[in-house]
Amino acid sequence: MKLYISPRAPNPRRVQMFIAEKGIAGIAEVVVEIGKDEHRSSDFRAKSPLAKVPVLELDDGRMLGETRAICSYLEGLYPEPNLMGETFEERAFIEMTDRRMEFYLFGSIANCIRHTHPGLAPLEQPQFADFGRSQGEKVREVARWLDEELSRLPFVAGERFTIADITAFCAIEFARGLMKFRPGHEGLANLQNWRDRIAERASARV
Ligand SMILES: N[C@@H](CCC(=O)N[C@@H](CS)C(=O)NCC(=O)O)C(=O)O
């Protein structure tokens, strides 16, 4: 299999971290530089029609896009360690949290950065700066809620590390770089402590 990624892009990082947590070896990484517009080439669009990374090329040549779909596929092929839930009930609750992390945390961070950062202007046209700034406020609302959750839970979906921690961590790291968002500087000590604990995992260094 081949995984198409772009350096510093947070969605490919989610898959890279998932692969590292599972200890999967042998998936070749192919770099598609978003910064050089390589993702919009006709060659890459043949693999990813909406010009997005990551994409997983399967051994039979099929292309699987969308981060969570790629993770579901890899969870099926490599069930251990389990990151998406053992039973239907656990799967549903982990999925609920993962979707909250993806839509309300990651999504608002991405919108804020894409609409306010000059470096993202080539990817996001037109940019709506007011919308971007309002999304930054939503990020802080969600972060305050998550900080409370983490005052009683060790991981975002409960008692153990799951895909939802990967989604949240990659989002917070993206915000750290391009929004200069540091939970600890905003009084969110639980979120900061969780982030620092996740950052110590070997998978966080991919
Ligand atoms: N929903 C997709 C989002 C993928 C996505 O937006 N990837 C970004 C990189 S993190 C991208 O390819 N951006 C290029 C662009 O928007 O032109 C997923 O979950 O994989």
From TrEMBL:
The keyword Transferase applies. InterPro entries: Glutathione-S-Trfase_C-like (IPR010987), Glutathione-S-Trfase_C_sf (IPR036282), Glutathione_S-Trfase (IPR040079), Glutathione_S-Trfase_N (IPR004045), Gtt2-like_N (IPR034345), Thioredoxin-like_sf (IPR036249). GO terms for biological process: glutathione metabolic process. The lineage of its organism: Bacteria, Pseudomonadati, Pseudomonadota, Betaproteobacteria, Rhodocyclales. GO terms for molecular function: glutathione transferase activity. This is Glutathione S-transferase. Transmembrane segments: none annotated. Homodimer. Residues 1-82 form the GST N-terminal domain. Residues 87-206 form the GST C-terminal domain. Gene3D superfamilies: 1.20.1050.10, Glutaredoxin (3.40.30.10). Keywords: Transferase.
